[in-house]
Every structure is written in structure tokens, then in C-alpha cells.
Amino acid sequence: MTEDSPANPRKIIHVDMDAFYASVEQRDDPSLRGKPLAVGGSAKRGVVAAASYEARKFGVKSAMPGVTARRRCPKLLFVKPRFEVYRAVSRQLHEIFARYTELIEPLSLDEAYLDVTADTAGIGSATGIAEAIRRNIRDELHLTASAGVSYNKFIAKVASDQNKPDGVLVVRPGEGADFVASLPARRFYGVGPRTAERMSALGIHTGADIRAQTLSFLEQHFGKSAHYLYQASRGEDYRSVRPDRERKSIGGERTYSQDLLLDEDLRTALEHIIDIVWERIEKNKTLGRTVTLKVKYADFQQITRARSVSPPVETRADFERISRGLLEALLPVAKGVRLLGLTLSALEAPLGASIDDPEGVAEAGPVQESLAF
Q: Would you call 111 a catalytic residue per the annotation?
């Protein structure tokens, strides 16, 4: 953990899909819905990769041998995993994340940290962003996700598990220490069964019990984990969200508190987004061949219009011309517009530059210190 300013708390969301593999299978095959389901092998050496919530009621868990799972739940249905489908859904999931922030740290196909401190979508609160993401997932992917919203990664991740499935929990800076104090010790990173046994033998059962120990005591009994336990038990975790994926697009969008209907209002709104996106393009020293306009209407219908060019877009004038042309083709609109967005994709770097520069990926616009939880 590294130091950060506590006066400027981050707004971090941990999004975790609910029973991801199993839920995708139930979504795609209605006959499986509402039934105990395991994704994986039922043979002697087969292992459960994921279990539906109906199966979990019987104690079926991931990584459990298939024969054990069948013994616990005789009516358990097994399906073979379709990883190519899960990867495709994961890509759709990350496209949803990217509407709200560029700071995305994937942990697996179905979960990620998002730093939404900058509020690039203009929603106004981290909780509002989490709910918007969950709504997008439900409406577009026909799946559910749970989310934890907090000021650091540790608490956000733990919080996302508290109200599963299909829930959200917000832990604000003033609530973090008490929230952590109530956690069982086994909920801390790295505390497996053996460490939990050692803690129990020392009279340590909760976060409050860990916090009651001195750093030297923790070092004596838990070695390298001591500093982490000492800080986490106080609700402290200064790690930043670190994107590790190659940038595939640069964009920005805005949701409006009042729907836009007049042509001039839409043109003015587009100019503001052009300013935002071009600034990011320049900072990342990136060229791209495809400009995409996204429009979401008042009834939540969403459309995109794109134009690809060769050679790539090199100047602001080119970017403006293409963006305005995409909007003009839609005017006049028959219903109000609640969201506009622009994206530059099919990226390539100019000579001597790199489009996956970590510093560029981390750029997400100015931090709005007033963003609420």
C-alpha cells in the first residue's frame, strides 16, 4: 500500500457478476432457469467451475469435485463450460464499464475495480454510477451484478459480496473503520484456513481484534502480512486502480439532467464532448480511424453511428468534421436525448509513441473533489 491523500478520497467501485458462468447458461437456456446448476464436469475427476444460487443452497461450490456436488444435490444439472461465450460476455461487460471511466482494473472475466473519482459521465455520485452500471448489465446483458462502493479497493471488494446477489453496498469514508471492525478475520486478504486457525488460537476473530494488536505483535505472528493487516483493520488501503489492458478506444460521454430536443442544444452539447475527447486524444498522442457517436434517447433507446476513414484522424478539425457530420445525419430528433458520447477507435500510435502507455491509460480527466458517494 502506498500513501495517498485522505483529504481527497477516491471513489472506487468493485463490480462482481453474480454466479457468472452459471447465470450465462441459465440466460441462454430457459430450461435451466430456477434449477440447481453446475458448470463443469460430473465425472469422477470433474470439478465444478461455477454453481448457480439454486445449487449453492445445497452447499455446492466452485472447485468442488463433481461427485461431491452430486452427492450434496442429487438433482444437480451439469453443463459443459463455454469459455468462448463467457469471454464474449466479458468484453461486453467491459464496454459498459468504459462508458463511466477509463480506470478499470480487471480481476477476472467477471469482476473489476473501477475508479470513478473523475465522474466522466457526469452522473453526480459514485453510487449513481454503480447503479447505472448494474442497470446496463441487467438491460443489455440480461444478467445481474453486485457492487461495492467505497473509498478504497479492499473495502469496495468486501462490500460487493455483502448483499449478493443483485445488490449494492456503499461504505463511506467515515464508516470504513467500523465496517472493517465487524468483519470476520477470514474476510481479510491472505487469511486462509490455516491463518484463521492461528488467529483463533491468539483470540483474533474479527477486524476489531486485528486492530487491537500492535504492529510488532502482528509482525511476530504474521510476518510480511503484518503491515497489510495493520492498515486494513483500520479501513486503510491506498492502492490505486491500475488498468492493465491495452487501450482500444478513447472517448467521453455526458448524461444530461434535462433531455435535449432542439438542434442547437444538441450541437452545443456535442462541441463540449469534442473538447473533452480531443484533449484526451492529444494527451495520449494517439491516432484513430473510426469515430463513433452514441445517442441515448429519453426512452433509453440507444443508437450508435460510426464513420471510418483512411488515413487516420490526425487533427482536431478532422475529428470535429466527422463528429458533427454524424450528429447532423440524425437531426432533427423526434424525441429527447438524455446522453451523447464520442469515441475514437481503431487506434494506432504515431511514430515514436505508444498507445498503451500506462500514464496515458490512467488519464481520466480532472478529479471532481465534490463527487458524492
A: yes
Q: Which of 105, 111, 236, 253 is catalytic?
A: 111
Is residue 110 annotated as involved in ligand binding?
yes
Instruction: Pick the closest to residue 111 from 67, 75, 160 (CA basis).
Output: 160
Nearest to 187 by CA among 158, 226, 223: 158
3-state secondary structure of 244: coil
- CA–CA dist 196, 190 (Å, integer): 10
Neighbours of 235 (CB within 10 A): 23
Q: pLDDT for 76-131, tens place per residue?
A: 999 998 988 998 999 999 999 999 999 999 888 899 999 999 998 889 999 999 99
Distance CA 366, CA 5 (A): 16
- The domain defined by 21-82 folds into MutS, DNA mismatch repair protein, domain I (3.40.1170)
Question: Which stretch of DSSP H or E encloses residue 39?
Answer: strand 37-40
Burial class (CB in 10 A: 0-12, 13-18, 19+), 40: buried
299 is in an annotated binding site: no
Domain residue ranges in the chain: 21-82, 189-232, 249-355
Query: In angstroms, rounded to a whole number, what is the distance separating the alpha carbons of residues 180 and 211?
Result: 9
